Amino acid sequence: MAIKTVVALLVGLALASVHVAEGQQQAKVTRIGWLANRPDTGIANRTVLRQMLAELGYVEGKNIAFEFRFADNEPDRFLALADELVRLKVDLIFVSDPNAAPAAKNATRTIPIVFLLGGDPVVAGLVDSFARPGRNITGFTDIATVLGGKRLELLKETIPKLSRVAVLWNPRTSPQQWKESQLAARELGLQLYSVEVSTAGKYEEGFKEAAKARSAALAVTQGPLNNTNQKQIVDLAAKKRLPAIYPRRDFVESGGLMSYGADRTEPYKRVALMIDKILKGTKPADLPVEQPTKFELMINLKTAKALGLTIPPVVMMRAEKVIK
């Protein structure tokens, strides 16, 4: 009888230990540091990534938590913010700003880093190559530098007699896009007028200069500053009656003429899959940098009508979405 009691106690203790171990395992919360520009922009994109991670089993408040750090339009702050995340010993750092990526890379050589950027990460010095990123960093690029030339081509198709285009770009974050635009312009027979804007307060003056230079259209590069100030840019383009093409569909939804860029959902879905693989043990160096496979052209016919512009059928046929 005593032996049975001892056995029952031992079995009970063993089961209790298993339950405690399971409870401890369930209590493990993965912490992801998130470096971005501002809390009031990119909200929809942050929501998409969180939803994608939730579909993969990462539930906020249960087994995952985000440590957000925002530079608030002060890029020089990113290094200190990245250092702060390293001191917190987060499990992974995700960056969605071109200035945040090098800051994160300089802050740690051990914590995995995943980026979602618009430029060429090799040219930017973030990775060794697309196929073999190297060290602790990998990610997704929506190849905004290459798409700058495609946007000029679409402008030319939309306005066949077009000869002079103003390009709105930020010398701090989009020099590659400006260079690629210049190369594409030569092939298209277009003259470009450079509108350099590095702070929100310079947009008005930049548009005045573009109009004075007799620019007949506008191409807007991708970047945090332009994305943050899209309504101001769209309104100024309307005021100056400049047909404009933008890098993202939300510009068109705000009243812009047209946009061409990578599908907005695909990058976040694939970044979520990358994060999942890394958290399960895959090294960032073993995950090639990915690029988009889906692109979308969006046209606002209301804006075209206001500008007195007729969109050619060959362009309309390629549009994924049209606002009437």
Account of the protein in words:
The chain is of the alpha/beta class and 324 residues long. The protein folds into two domains: 24-141 and 264-286, Response regulator (Rossmann fold), CATH 3.40.50.2300; 144-262 and 295-323, Rossmann fold, CATH 3.40.50.2300. Helix content is 43%, strand content 19%. The strands form two sheets. The chain has a seven-stranded mixed sheet, with helices on both faces. Helix 6 links the parallel strand 6 and strand 7. Helix 2 (43-55) crosses helix 11 and helix 5 (144-158) runs parallel beside helix 6.
Please sum up the structure shown.
With 324 residues, the chain is α/β, with parallel strands linked by helices. 43% of the residues lie in helices and 19% in strands.
